[in-house]
Amino acid sequence: SPWGVPAAPAAAPISLAEVMSEELADHLQKKEFKVLEPSPAPTAVPDIPPDVDFDTSDDLLIAQMLQKQFDKEYDSALGKEERNMNRNSKVTVSYSKYRMVPETRIWDDSDEDEEDMYFTQDDGKRDWDVFETNEKEVGDMPRCGFKVIGDKIVTKHDREISQRENAKRIMEFPPGIETGDGGGFDMQLSNKVYNKIRNFSVKEGKRKNRVGDKEDKAVAEQAVDPQTRLLLYKLVNGGVLDGINGVISTGKEAVIMHADGGPGPERDTNEPMNVPKECAVKVFKTTLNEFKTRDKYIRDDYRFKDRFSKQNPRKVIHMWAEKELHNLAKMAKGGIRVPEIVVLKKHVLIMSFIGREGKPAPKLKDAADQMSAKDLDMAYQQVVEMMEQLYTVCHLVHADLSEYNILWYEKEVWFIDVSQAVEPIHPSGLDFLLRDCTNVCNFFSKRGVDCLEPHELFSKVSGLEVDGGTEAEIVCQIRNYQKSQAAQSNNSKGGLEDEDNFEYCWEH
Fold first, then answer.
1. Chain-wide mean pLDDT for the chain?
2. N or C: lower Cβ tally within 10 Å for the chain?
3. 3-class DSSP state of 274
4. In the Cβ-directed half-sphere of 470, how many Cα atoms lie within 13 Å?
5. Is 182 helix (H, G, I), strand (E, B) or coil?
6. 0.70 exceeded by the pTM?
7. End-to-end alpha-carbon separation of the chain, Å?
8. Alpha-carbon gap, residue 429 to 436, rounded angstroms
9. Phi, psi at residue 255, to the nearest 5°?
10. Which helix (H) or strand (E) holds 260?
């Protein structure tokens, strides 16, 4: 066709025989060997004049400068193209991510500029204290409460002035409020923020004083306060104790320590003070945490109620220690196995140590696992016998008798922690006795001991007939006995008014 493109001559087809011929293979091999031949030797380099400098240390700097110039020209051209693209359109297209140098700087050297400006500035114009500078600008506020500064009327309630005054006051707070250098910049605090910081500062100061005073006066779990430590030093220096070996037990109300008995204090009388070889030092805790619910043992006890109402809460602990001293003396006089009393100093009670060579006798709770059935039955009989003897002879109720307050030592039971013991005529004395009977019966019955029911043990110890039934019925019967006892005590009250009740109770 005259309008068409002339067709290229078609290549002659190559037969398979020609491809596989030896002639073609030889041609290809020679071509390959020609590629692998070594390159010809380089031509000789012309001589370099001796005055040419070979130092290339500035090449990197020159390359960086050239690259920076290239990036600048590239970004300039990119910006022109972006402006041509957008023109007056409301929707613009940004080429910022294609720039070589970002429009926003990713570093900030403003500190260096400010530092240079700071050192080059005249000392007369330099602000050493922003608070003082601002006061000079505003000046003293007149009594009318406002003044004219330029074209502006400034009152004493101006926001900036008030916030600067708050910042100035906060710099005078006691240590603990980290404010930094408020005078180095124009610091302003709103009234809300200032009041919160001030209230926090006042509360924190009171808390620190309260905690510090409490830590100085309180007996902790494993340590003693300085006042208690001084009492112990006096006991050692006075000869009552030879040395204190450390804490052996901690309870809800006291810390028990082991001590070596001393020769005894020097006295004018010929009667020596019998201090055992090993002593137990009972330090009653003075934190009052455990005594908040125990005041009923003293407040409702007629032997102490006249004195209790006149004491502050902290001195109640001293009365609590004194109460244990008298209860121990009364129990020991009635034949109850209790620790022997040595001396009482405020809230520190020295007693004989139940144990041997610093090893305390185990509590009945811990010893029961190694006791035989015969020993458990023996312990139960001893506990019941001592409860009867405590009620009938000593006229006391333990009020907290359980396996935790009974020691097992040399096949015998010992009563400890008797500070809460009260007389049966106490308004809650019979309730406490029923609780003791319930604790004893529950403990021994769980270990297979054939024991009485709580109400039966109550009748055996107190001699009051209580019929079985629900717990509420038993408690109701006991309350009736208490009411009758209270009526009898009121009728016979006149016989005891002429004597000192406190001394009378220990003699009788």
1. 77
2. N
3. coil
4. 3
5. helix
6. no
7. 151
8. 11
9. -115, 130
10. strand 254-261
Q: Identify any residues that bridge with 269 across adjacent strands, giving them in sequence order.
A: none
Tokens of 95: 């080429």
Cβ neighbours for 340, distance < 8 A, ≥ 6 positions apart: 276, 332, 351, 352
If we measure between CA atoms, which residue out of 450, 438, 447, 442 comes closest to residue 369? 447
**Rounded-to-integer distance, Cα 400 and Cα 389, Å:** 16
Specify the pLDDT at position 20. Answer: 62
Helices (H), 139-225: 159-170, 191-217
Q: Is the pLDDT of residue 229 over 50?
A: yes
Residues paired with 258 in a beta bridge: 246, 280
Distance, CA of 111 to CA of 253 (rounded, Å) = 63
Q: Are 390 and 397 in contact (CB under 8 A)?
A: yes
pLDDT given for residue 103 in this prediction = 66
**3-class DSSP state of 464:** coil
Closest CA to 171 of 194, 154, 149: 194
Least confident of 11-15, 206-210, 245-249: 11-15
* Chain center to CA of 420: 32
Query: Is a pLDDT exceeding 70 seen at residue 236?
Result: yes
The one-letter amino acid at 78: L
Q: Give the per-residue pLDDT at 499.
A: 40
Contacts of 274 (CB under 8 A, 6+ apart): 264
3-state secondary structure of 397: strand
Instruction: Report, as residue numbers or ranges, the catalytic residues.
Output: 400
Q: Alpha helices, DSSP H only, in 371-470?
A: 373-392, 429-446, 454-462
How far is 89 from 299, CA to CA, in rounded Å? Answer: 92
- Whether 330 shows a pLDDT value over 90: the answer reads yes
Which of 309-318, 390-399, 414-423 has the weakest average pLDDT? 309-318
* pLDDT level of residue 305 (50, 70, 90 thresholds): low
Instruction: Tell me what the mean pLDDT of segment 206-210 comes to.
Output: 70
Structure tokens at 47: 């001589």
Tokens representing residue 46 in the block: 């012309």
Cα torsion angle, 204, 208, 211, 213, sign: negative
Q: Is 334 a residue whose pLDDT tops 90?
A: yes
SS3 472: helix
Q: Tell me phi and psi for residue 139, to 5 degrees.
A: 80, 180
Among 59-63, 136-140, 339-343, 396-400, the minimum mean pLDDT is found in 136-140
Is the model's pLDDT at 127 over the cut of 60? Answer: no
7-11, 40-44, 299-303, 493-497: which is most confident: 299-303
Token pair belonging to 141: 């506020």
AA identity, residue 176: G
Nearest CA to 376 out of 365, 387, 360, 385 is that of 365
* Measured CA angle at 453 (ends 452, 458), to 5 deg: 90
